Amino acid sequence: MSRPPVIAAARRPTRQIRLGPVLVGGDAPVTVQSMTTTKTADVEGTLSQIYALAAAGADIVRCTCNEEEAAEGLAHIVPRAPVPIVADIHFHHEMALAALEAGVQGLRLNPGNLRKEAEIKQVAEEAKARGVPIRIGVNAGSLHPDLYKRYGGATPEALVESARMELAYFAEVGFEDVKISVKASSVPLMIAAYRLASETFDHPLHLGVTEAGPPPGGLIKGTAGIGTLLAEGIGDTIRYSLTADPVEEARAGRQLLEALGLRERRGLDLIACPSCGRAEIDVIGVARAVQEALEARELPIQVAVMGCVVNGPGEAREADLGIAAGRRRGHLFIKGKIVRVVPEEEMVAALVEEAERLVAEGIEARLAAADDRAEAEAEADRRALFEARGADVNHSSEKVELIRRVVHEHDAGG
Q: What is the chain's mean pLDDT, rounded?
């Protein structure tokens, strides 16, 4: 009997909007977004980046529309793009109108930079006529000056109020096809603002830590903010904002959703032990070689690289496929069952070969094709290694005794 999936928290209910064929909010999967870094007027360069982003996991891509040439570029880009295109608008409402003429599937308006009520309403009316949703993209660094004064700075309340004011303008023209973001570069502020937004609005929320910086710091900040909220059931679409190739943003977003069980795995998930005194191989080197080989093949499986055979297959029994090293041999296992034993120098090649066959034939077929001698050989290696290295290879018992001695001496002296 199959087990139900474990989830961090149920998604909070929101309205649903549509960007071309992609649904956001409601019961739709959480989507991944990124933004091109090319000049939008460079049609071929921008399209090349959009295709790379889509291949890396982006469901929606945003392009800047800051000048007439950019709007003209969008007219050529949108019909050729593999994913919905959102036009990013800041200071000039005419650029939003031009982007709508170009056929974009979404707009992003920054209410701190586009402030005239009449212009905002005009854009909303045109978007409504075309069935194009708008993201109210609030940013802690570009709020209306009045909000900074009223709230004493960029507070969660100030960010949410900015979105509420924009929604009020939209409501006056009957426009409700909206998603909202309340981004900040401070992770705690971002988390608090989105929690408040989720209590205030029923519109879908677009999550992100803005200006997170380059990896690895930017990835850590983005994951801390976005991951925390997703684990609480908050968020309908996400974007990592990295000082890096935007493909890294899309890849990180997809991997985060897969790790949280919010999207079905479509690429490699590699797990590896941190190594210990029992490791028989260079775990870091082997894991890196396996990752490079399998990522290029885009196989949607979980693979484990374990440093020894004593506990390796058992610790990684839930992995689709794995290998553990022992006595200069590699023990290949599927769902914890040893299926082959290969020489150490053939470990990576054997793992890649088995991964391809596993995806092509299925787990049951590969288990049925297991080498009958593999389990016995693996058990012999495991016992030999255990006897040679002992039960306490990391000398934990010695440390425990030292801790007890220190604590008892302190108690006796006190």
A: 88
